[in-house]
Write a structure and sequence with these properties.
Elements: H1 6-20, H2 27-36, H3 55-67, H4 77-89, H5 92-103, E1 109-112, E2 128-132, E3 135-146, E4 153-159, E5 170-176, E6 182-187, E7 196-207, E8 211-212, H6 218-235, H7 272-276, H8 278-288, H9 295-323, H10 331-354, H11 370-377, H12 388-399
Helix pairs in contact: 1-3, 4-5, 4-6, 6-9, 6-10, 8-9, 8-10, 9-10, 10-11, 10-12
Length: 423
C-alpha cells in the first residue's frame, strides 16, 4: 500500500479547489462538492465517505482550504459525534441513511444524553422508551442539549429495560426532532446566547430501525460517542477559512458560501474550536495593542502555545492507536482535562491583553468581542462532555486501577435504585 504524503495531499486539494471552488455557490452546493470528493471529513474512514487520514494530513487539507479562501465542511455534532458513532456501530443500512446527510450538511444533530437527575451519573437516566409494534414511544426530559433548537436529529439515550442493571437497560436511537411530543426550550447563558436547551419528550416516537448498536446495548454505543467527544474537544484546533452550522433550520444552506469566509472573530457564537485557535488571536491582539514585549504576557502566550501543541499531539497519538487497532487508554480523558486547562488560561490571558477594554462587550471592541465571550464561556468546557471530576475518576479507576466509589452492586436492577445513586 502506497503511503500518502503531505505533498500529494496538498497537490490533490489544490487541484480540486482550482476546478471546483466557487464563492458564488450556495453553502449546500459547495458542501455537496466537498463531500463527493471526500474532502469534507477526511479523517473518517474510506468506507464512511472519508479518506482515513490521520490528523496531520487532515490539517494539510484545512490549511489548503484556508489558503484558497475556501470554506470547510459542516461543523456540529453530526460530524463530531453522530457520524463516527454510526460508522462504528450502525448497520450498513443505517450508515447509508445517516452518513451522507451529515457529510453534505443537510441534517444537523444534537445529543440527547444528560437529564436533570442524570448528568455526571449519566447511566441513571430515566427517559423511557416503550415498545409499540415497530416503534418506541419516548417519555422524559433532557437538558444541556447543544443546538437542539436547530437540530433535525438527536442521539437519544433512553431506558428500554428498567429491570436490568442501570448500565445494561439503555438503548441508543437516531431520533427525529421534528415531530409531535418534542418541545425545545432554549437556556440563556451569561454570554447572552442560548447554545443549550431543555428538551421535553412526551409520547414522541422513533422507529425500531433507528436503534443503533442493538437493543439494550446503548451504554457501549454511548461510550463510543463520549470517546469521540473527548477527543474532539481535547484536540482543539480550528477549521478552514470559515464554517457554518448544518441543517435546514440553521438557514445557512442557501447562503452564498463566499460570505462565510471569515475568521474566529466573525460575530458568531464561540465554539470549542475557538480555544484551539486562541494563540494566534491573542498573539495578534498583543502585537496590535503594543503589549507583545510584556514579559509576563509573553510567558503566558508561550504556555498557551505549548498546551495547544500537547493537545494536538495527544490527539494524533490517540488516532494513531485507534487506526492500529490499539486501545488509546485514557488519552481522550487527558485531552479533555487539558482543554479545561487551556480555557482557564484563555479566560485569564485574554482580558490581561485587552486591559480595561476587556470589561466591555460588543463587536465594536478590539477583537470584535470574541475575547470577552471566550472569557464568559470558559467555565463550560470543564463541565460538558463529562466534568473534570468524572475524567479524573475514569483515569483513576480504569488507568491507575484505583478502587471505585462505594455504591450498590452493579447487578442491581435499575428500578430498585434510588434516583441519583452513584455506581
Amino acid at each position: 500500500m502506497t503511503e500518502v504524503t503531505a505533498e500529494a495531499v496538498r497537490d490533490d486539494v489544490r487541484a480540486f479547489l482550482a476546478e471546483h471552488w466557487d464563492p458564488d455557490l450556495t453553502v449546500a452546493q459547495w458542501w455537496e462538492r466537498l463531500g463527493e470528493a471526500r474532502w469534507a471529513v477526511p479523517t473518517w474512514p474510506e468506507t464512511a465517505l472519508g479518506r482515513g487520514f490521520a490528523g496531520d494530513l487532515a490539517r494539510v487539507v484545512a490549511d489548503e482550504l484556508r489558503a484558497a479562501g475556501a470554506v470547510g465542511g459542516p461543523a456540529g455534532l453530526g460530524i463530531l459525534l453522530a457520524g463516527p458513532t454510526i460508522y462504528t456501530h450502525g448497520s450498513p443500512e443505517q450508515q447509508e441513511r445517516y452518513l451522507p446527510p451529515i457529510v453534505n450538511g443537510e441534517e444537523a444533530w444534537c445529543q440527547l444524553f444528560s437529564e436533570p437527575g442524570a448528568g455526571s451519573d449519566l447511566a441513571s437516566l430515566q427517559t423511557k422508551a416503550e415498545r409499540d409494534g415497530d416503534e418506541w414511544v419516548i417519555t422524559g426530559q433532557k437538558v444541556w442539549t447543544s443546538g437542539a433548537q436547530v437540530a433535525d436529529l438527536g442521539m437519544l439515550l433512553a431506558r428500554t429495560d428498567p429491570d436490568a442493571p442501570k448500565h445494561q437497560g439503555i438503548s441508543y436511537f437516531a431520533f427525529s426532532m421534528d415531530q409531535p411530543g418534542v418541545e425545545v426550550r432554549p437556556l440563556r447563558e451569561m454570554t447572552g446566547r442560548a447554545l443549550f436547551s431543555e428538551v421535553f419528550l412526551d409520547g414522541a416516537r422513533v422507529s425500531n430501525d433507528a436503534l443503533i448498536g442493538g437493543l439494550n446495548k446503548g451504554w457501549a454505543v454511548a461510550n463510543t460517542t463520549l470517546a469521540f467527544e473527548r477527543t474532539g474537544l481535547g484536540g482543539g484546533g480550528s477549521g478552514a477559512g470559515g464554517a457554518a452550522f448544518p441543517g435546514r433550520k440553521a438557514g445557512a444552506l442557501t447562503t452564498r458560501v463566499g460570505d462565510l469566509v471569515t475568521g474566529i472573530g466573525s460575530g458568531r457564537s464561540v465554539q470549542p474550536s475557538a480555544f484551539g485557535g486562541s494563540f494566534g488571536l491573542f498573539r495578534d491582539l498583543a502585537e496590535k495593542l503594543g503589549r507583545a514585549g510584556d514579559p509576563t504576557l509573553r510567558q503566558r502566550l508561550a504556555e498557551l502555545y505549548t498546551l495547544n501543541e500537547i493537545g494536538r499531539m495527544t490527539s494524533l497519538r490517540q488516532r494513531a492507536a485507534r487506526a492500529a487497532g490499539r486501545d488509546a487508554g485514557p488519552a481522550g480523558n487527558l485531552a479533555k482535562l487539558l482543554m479545561s486547562r487551556i480555557t482557564r488560561l484563555t479566560r485569564d490571558l485574554g482580558p490581561a491583553i485587552l486591559g480595561p477594554e476587556g470589561m466591555l462587550m460588543g463587536e465594536a471592541t478590539t477583537g470584535g468581542g470574541v475575547v470577552q465571550e471566550m472569557t464568559l464561556f470558559a467555565p463550560a468546557p470543564s463541565i460538558y462532555g463529562g466534568s473534570d471530576e468524572i475524567q479524573k475518576n475514569i483515569i483513576g479507576e480504569r488507568a491507575l486501577g484505583l478502587p471505585k466509589e462505594p455504591g450498590p452492586d452493579k447487578n442491581t436492577p435499575f428500578r430498585e435504585l434510588k434516583v441519583g445513586t452513584q455506581a
